[in-house]
Amino acid sequence: MSSTAVELRNVSRYYGGVRAVDGVSLSIQDGEFFSMLGPSGSGKTTCLRLIAGFEQPTAGSILLHGQEAAGLPPYERDVNTVFQDYALFPHMSVLDNVAYGRMVKGVAKAARHREAEEALELVALGGFGARRPGQLSGGQRQRVALARALINKPRVLLLDEPLGALDLKLREQMQAELKSLQRRLGITFVYVTHDQGEALSMSDRVAVFNLGRIEQVETPRNLYARPRTVFVAGFVGTANVVKGDLARRLTGSEQPFSVRPEHVRFAQGAEGNRVSVEGRLVEVQYHGATSRYEVQVEGHHVLTLSLLNGEADEAALPRRGDTVRVAWAREAMVRLEPEGG
Amino acid sequence: MGTSSPMALPASGQPRNRLSRLVANVLYRHGTLYLLLLLTPPLLWFGVVYLGSLLSLLVQSFYTFDDFTMGVTPDFTWANYAALLDAANHDIVLRTLGMAGAVTVASALLGFPVAYYMARYATGWRKGFFYIAVMLPMWASYIVKAYSWTVLLSKGGIVYWLVERVYLMPALEWVLSLPGVGGSSLSTSNLGRFLVFTYVWLPFMILPIQAAIERVPGNLLQAAADLGARPAQSFRTVLLPLAFPGVVAGSIFTFSLTLGDYIIPQLVGPPGLFIGNMVYTMQGSIGNMPMAASFTVVPIVIVGLYLTVARRLGAFDAL
Q1: Residue B317's closest chain A neighbor by CA?
Q2: Do B217 and A148 touch (CB under 8 A)?
Q3: Inter-chain contact B222–A54, Cβ cutoff 8 Å?
Q4: How many residue contacts between A and B have a Cβ separation below 8 Å?
Q5: Which pLDDT does position B2 carry in this prediction?
Q6: N or C: which end of chain B has fewer CB within 10 A?
Q7: What does the pLDDT look like over B277-319, one tens digit per residue?
Q8: B142-153 and B190-215 helices cross at what angle (nearest 10)?
Q9: Average of pLDDT values for B138-166?
Q10: Which residues of B fall below an 8 Å CB-CB distance to A?
Q11: Average model confidence (pLDDT) across chain B
């Protein structure tokens, strides 16, 4: 039933000697909310621009609904983009901004204004059409950009860090709205972000980018629970990545593994089916619902615990400077591919 | 001042320092005084020297010139303005206006592509080269350039030589035979005058357009393309409207500079005065200051109307 909306086959984009995108292959299903997550400079935005047509690949092939798109200019692709800084036309009213995509297709003024008004209502901005983009707040501009990108009824919507410029509360609200909008419209969203929380909470699947390559493509749940590489474990959520001598001592192998802070507990003594290690408690941070404890083991290695506040007896918890033993279940450990692998 | 006092502030040590701090603090607390100090010299210059002389000009344009005594008396009259409507004077105004319009349109058409390339594509040394290439002609004396053009355009000059080499002489002769454009040779034709004017003022058109195009964010053009606009459409609907204030700014230069020029019309082109020549003649040779003043009011009014229209078009608030 589900067909492929966007497919990248071994796509590369070089700038001189810099490999911005380096042999990326991925396939995005129709109707999927797909996120491309990574630090700045990891190639995720370049990938989006390649799909939009603002860049052409140095090598490889891009298919939109099965049709080769490499070489096609943006105006001949059935995808639309929500830009990071909105890119609204400052000399046009909000209504004309939204209607722009219909205007260039030759739709008559009355008809395209009616469509634009509907699109504005879709993003809860009905009645704002007469204003100029400069008279709107950041969140409102974001919605206008969204309405403008949706008016051509694209089958794929590309979003380039659309919430990056908004404050935290507004961002959370917009995340929920974007997700429900995507569900209602049923179109494919390709969402670029450097915010792993955003990617986890909204996406059907997430591709993690690093140094122009894809490290892993997974559902948020699996990505968090079973990171494949050291980079993914560290970038998605917080993780204790253990490698080298300590890894050998605990598991008998130098292969790195990760264990999430919420799976680590203070322990009294060595327990049979659990892995445990002794160290010194060097830092305690209060985070409201949880507290973070940092335990230094074997000199430079720091293991982090996350405990729910109010769950344990406050008086029984260790204090900074105490020597403690921490432990976790064997099932909580995830073996990672070594870096560069 | 106890040297041992640990509370001594270092800045309060020297009297000169203390004075400048005092002045700075007073100015900081009294913003109006600060503003007044800053603005008084330029306002005096604008108010007295600049606007004052314009006002005195306006007043003198209502004075009476006595044809017999060749003297000016401060008696109020409309005669100088009425004289502007004489066929001969009327022609001068239209001739100047027509040339200013033609030069402006040509400069905009020639300047836009250059400005577009400079702002959007040229980088590094190419950009520097274009800046210098556009500005370099302004370093040479304007009169020298105008004179050089009379040589270039004269019969036996390099332009004629070139036209002959590419067998286009009949075409040139046909163009020169057109009424209103031609003349006996390029250097005595309106076409020649138009070429020189366009050459001299083109940089003043390129630079403001270039600055305006540079201010248009590149992602607006990407957004237009993304929404389905072909290059010609995004140019017409996004780039041109946003760069238009630059075109208007440039046109104000080319238009008003042509309107006020009196040297090029003397050196190149057919006989027939421009407003500037008329002012020069009236004021310099005849001593008819009132008539010169009324002639000077004409370009002021025209440019005033021009700016009003530009404003109505929304050219100034588009950015």
Answers
A1: A91
A2: no
A3: yes
A4: 65
A5: 43
A6: N
A7: 988 888 888 888 899 999 999 989 998 998 888 777 665 654 3
A8: 130
A9: 89
A10: 217, 219-220, 222-230, 233-234, 237-238, 241-242, 318-319
A11: 87
DSSP B263: S
pLDDT exceeds cutoff 90 at A312: no
Q: How confident is the model at residue A256 (pLDDT cuts 50, 70, 90)?
A: very high
| Domain locations along chain A | 4-228, 240-335
Percentage of the residues of chain B whose pLDDT score is greater than 90: 34
A188 vs B23, higher pLDDT: A188
Q: Model-level pTM?
A: 0.80
Q: How many beta carbons lie within 10 A of that of residue B148, not counting itself? A: 12
Largest CA distance in chain B: 97
A83 contacts on B by Cβ (under 8 Å) = 219, 222-223
pLDDT at B228: 94
Fold type of domain B79-312: MetI-like fold (1.10.3720)
Query: What pLDDT shows up at residue B264?
Result: 92
Find chain A residues with C-beta within 8 A of B220's C-beta: 87, 89
Cβ–Cβ below 8 Å for A75 and B228 = yes
Per the model's pLDDT, the better-predicted residue between A294 and A1 turns out to be A294
Q: CA-to-CA distance for B314 and B247, rounded, in angstroms?
A: 13
Cα A211 from chain centroid (whole Å): 16
Per CB-CB distance under 8 Å, the chain B contacts of A89 are 220, 223-224, 238
Cβ contact, residue pair A80, B238, below 8 Å: no
ipTM: 0.86
Tokens 């092939």 sit on residue? A61
Residue A24 tokens read as 């990326």
Q: Residues with Cβ < 8 Å from B223, sequence gap 6 or more? A: A81, A83, A87, A88, A89, A148
DSSP structure string for A119-146: HHHHTT-TT-TTS-GGGS-HHHHHHHHH
Which DSSP string corresponds to B36-80? Answer: HHHHHHHHHIIIIIIHHHHHHHHHHTTSEEETTTTEEE----SHH
Q: Residue B90: what pLDDT?
A: 87
A340: amino acid identity, one letter: G
Q: Is A228 helix (H, G, I), strand (E, B) or coil?
A: coil
Judge: domain A240-335, CATH 2.40.50.140: yes
Q: Sign of torsion, CA A217 A223 A229 A233? A: positive
Each residue's pLDDT tens digit, A45-87: 999 999 999 999 999 999 999 999 988 999 999 999 999 999 9
Give the closest of B219, B228, B237 to A152, CB-based: B228
Amino acid B173: pLDDT:
87
A105 interaction partners in chain B (CB closer than 8 Å)? 228
Instruction: Please give the biggest Cα pair distance in chain A.
Output: 78
What is the SS3 assignment for B84?
Answer: helix
Query: Which of A81, A89, A91 shows the shortest C-beta gap to B226?
Result: A81
Domain A4-228 superfamily per CATH: P-loop containing nucleotide triphosphate hydrolases (3.40.50.300)
A319 and chain B in contact, CB less than 8 A = no
Interface test with A, best of B219, B227, B248 (most A CBs within 10 A): B227
Sequence ranges of the domains in chain B: 79-312
How many of the other CB atoms lie within 10 Å of CB of A190? 26
Mean pLDDT of A133-147: 93
Give the count of alpha carbons within 13 A of A62, CB side only: 25
